[in-house]
Amino acid sequence: MALVYQPVMQLSGILVSLLGWVLSCLTTYLPQWKNLNLELNELEIWTMGLWQACVVQEEGGMQCKDFDSFLALPPELRISRILMFFSNGSGLLGLLLSGFGLDCLKIGERQQEQKKRLLLFGGMLFWISGITAIVPVSWVAHSTVQEFWDENIPDIVPRWDFGEALFVGWLAGFCLILGGSLLNCTLCSTEVHPSSVHYAVAEQQDQCQRLETETRP
C-alpha cells in the first residue's frame, strides 16, 4: 500500500506546486493589482500593477504605461516586486529539486537518502515560495482597505479597489504551501523495506527452531 501511496502523493504535490508557481508568475506581471472606477467617466477603468498602470475602455481598448522609476513607487509595490521575484525563484528551484527526488524517476534509484533530502528541500522551498507570494498581495490588499476607508480623503475622490491579481496571488500561495505539505507528508510515512521483512522472518524461524529443540525429550 505504501509503495502505491507515496508516488501518487509525490506527483500530486509537485503538480499542485507547479500550478501555484505558474499562478505566482502570472500574478507578478498582471497589471490588475488595483482597480479604480471613475464615477465621472464610467467608460474607463484604471488598473495598477507592479510594473505599469493601464486604462481599460469600454470599447475594448487598453493602454498601459510603464512606471518610470522604481523609487517613485509606493513602498508596498517596491517590496512586492522583490518578494514576488523571490517567490518565483524559490518555486522554480523547488520544482527542480523535488523533480529529481521523485520515486517514479529512475535516476538515482540506489541513492534513496539523497532523493529524500531533495524532496525535503523542495517541499521547504515551496513553503517559502508560497509565503513570499501571500505576503505582498496581502500587504497591497491591506493598504488598499486602509486607503478606501480613510476619512481624511474626500468622498468625491475615487478609491482604489481589489484587483484580480490579488486573488490569483492568494490562490498561488495556497497551492504552493499545499504542494510542499504533500511532498513532506510522503517523507513522514513509514515504508517497510523488503530486507527488513526477510530479516524479521528469518529471526522468527530461528526462534521457532530453538523452541522445538528445547521441547524435545
Automatic annotation (TrEMBL):
PANTHER family: CLAUDIN
UniProt keyword annotation of Ribosomal protein present: no
Pfam family, one: PMP22_Claudin
Family label: Belongs to the claudin family.
Membrane-spanning segments: 12-30, 79-97, 118-142, 162-183
Main location, first listed in the record: other
Membrane topology reported for the UniProt record: Multi-pass membrane protein
Localization per Swiss-Prot or TrEMBL: Cell junction, Tight junction; Cell membrane
Cellular component aspect of the GO annotation: bicellular tight junction; plasma membrane
UniProt organism field: Catharus ustulatus (Russet-backed thrush)
Keywords: Cell junction, Cell membrane, Membrane, Tight junction, Transmembrane, Transmembrane helix
Protein's gene: LOC116996168
Entry keyword Cytoplasm: no
Name of the protein this chain belongs to: Claudin
Job description of the protein: Claudins function as major constituents of the tight junction complexes that regulate the permeability of epithelia.
Gene Ontology MF: a single term: structural molecule activity
Record's signal peptide: none
